[in-house]
Structure formats: C-alpha cells, structure tokens
ATP-dependent Clp protease adaptor ClpS
Amino acid sequence: MSTQEKTLEEVLQQEEVLTQNEIVLYNDDVNTFDHVITTLIHVCEHTAEQAEQCALLVHYKGKCTVKTGLYDDLKPRCSMLLEAGLSAEII
C-alpha cells in the first residue's frame, strides 16, 4: 500500500466520524409567517429569502430542515426556536 493510499483511507475514516444533525421546523396554526421568518433570520442566521422559503415549505409540506450541523451548535439554536413558540426538533 502506498503512502498516498494510506492517507486517503485515513481521511475517509475521519469524515465518517463527523455526523451532521438537522433542526426540523414543523408547521403549526399559531405563528405568523412574519414571526417565523424573523425568528429564522435571528436564530439560524438565514437571509430573508432563505427564511421565507423555509416558512413556505413548512406551511405547505408540514416541515422543513432549517439548519444542519454538529449537535453542539444546533442545540442552543433549537432551544431558541422553541422559546420563540415554534415547533422544532433535532434529528
């Protein structure tokens, strides 16, 4: 086995260890589009266009992944969404 093959194998193994989680936002009959959009901009650092698209997907499809990343980054963001009255979970 050459050095190049061994290095490539090690890199592939490291990538498998890092798992991406998702915050999924669910539809409800309580929150307005403006509130959802404003909250996504603040909490998930979305642009206005991203937040609006997510709000529309949640409304018409029932749910939408609004942020992906490592669990430690997503946990406080999900908590902020919940505190804002939105329905969300990390999967």
